[in-house]
Design goal:
- This protein is an alpha+beta fold.
- It has two domains: 95 residues, Pseudouridine synthase I, catalytic domain, N-terminal subdomain (Alpha-Beta Plaits); 134 residues, Alpha-Beta Plaits.
- It has five helices and ten strands.
- Strands 1, 2, 3, 4, 5, 6, 7, 8, 9 and 10 form a ten-stranded mixed sheet that branches.
- Helix 3 crosses helix 4.
- The chain is globular, with a radius of gyration of 19 Å.
- Belongs to the tRNA pseudouridine synthase TruA family.
- It is an enzyme of class 5 (isomerase).
- Its EC number is 5.4.99.12.
């Protein structure tokens, strides 16, 4: 039986989601080791990768269960969470069709970036970014430049072959609450480090070191004006929609 699980994790404790040969400290690795202790040896498949230090409140995975777990998903969730604590939490486990695929069936993904206009406290340093001289309206205007369907070839980190680099940004938004500013980006899919590069460009516009016209030129692949990545702290994979 195949199941879909929605999970949350503290990305500060890991070197990214994807399993690596150089370190066991990945989210995927932790999930697989805990699953093996429960007699589950099927691959853990995620909706997508997150960079080192990036968090998730709504990452989605799927895996196949051996028969001894088919009738007690509540108990499985309890035992799995005990093994994953304190840095990963299984929020829900539900049965799905055997053809369900966490990555390829995803229609939309939503990322959230948490910024603070004053220096974060020691307890916030890994979970929010300090945004100097913040101006939410300028951020909103810059992010809107990325909405629509574009070839984001100049707005992703190279190193792997994603196939097409065309993606559709469905919605961007900026919300201010007291000393916090929250950015939202929703798309049909994201390239490697694309969110961090988009937010890096938007904050550069806010600070006056990049123009809206330069963003347009880079989106049109006429010139590269910035490759700056926003820090991973404060970035969350918030939701995956199917």
């Amino acid at each position: 039986m195949r199941v879909k699980a929605v999970i949350a994790y503290d990305g500060a404790a890991f070197y990214g989601f994807q399993a690596q040969t150089t370190t066991p400290k990945t989210v995927s690795g932790a999930l697989s080791r805990a699953a093996a202790k429960l007699g589950i040896h099927a691959p853990i498949v995620g909706s997508g990768r997150t960079d080192r230090g990036v968090h998730a409140t709504g990452q989605v995975i799927h895996f196949d269960l051996p028969s001894h777990w088919h009738n007690d998903l509540g108990k499985l969730k309890t035992f799995y969470n005990r093994l994953l604590s304190p840095h990963i939490q299984i929020k829900t486990i539900t049965p799905v069709d055997d053809t369900f695929h966490a990555r390829f069936d995803a229609k939309r993904r939503i990322y959230r970036y948490l910024f603070k206009s004053t220096p974060p406290t020691p307890f916030e340093n890994l979970y929010a970014c300090h945004l100097h001289h913040s101006d939410p309206e300028k951020l909103r205007i810059a992010l809107e430049r990325f909405e629509g369907t574009h070839d984001f070839y100049y707005f992703h980190k190279k190193g792997s072959d994603p196939g097409s680099t065309v993606r559709t940004i469905i919605r961007t938004d900026v919300k201010a609450f007291r000393r916090y500013i929250v950015l939202y980006i929703e798309a049909n899919g994201f390239l490697r480090s694309q969110v961090r590069m988009i937010v890096g460009a938007a904050t550069a516009v806010m600070h006056g070191t990049l123009t809206l016209e330069q963003i347009d030129e880079q989106l049109a692949k006429k010139a590269i004006h910035t490759t700056m990545l926003a820090p991973p702290q404060g970035l969350y994979l918030a939701r995956v929609i199917y």
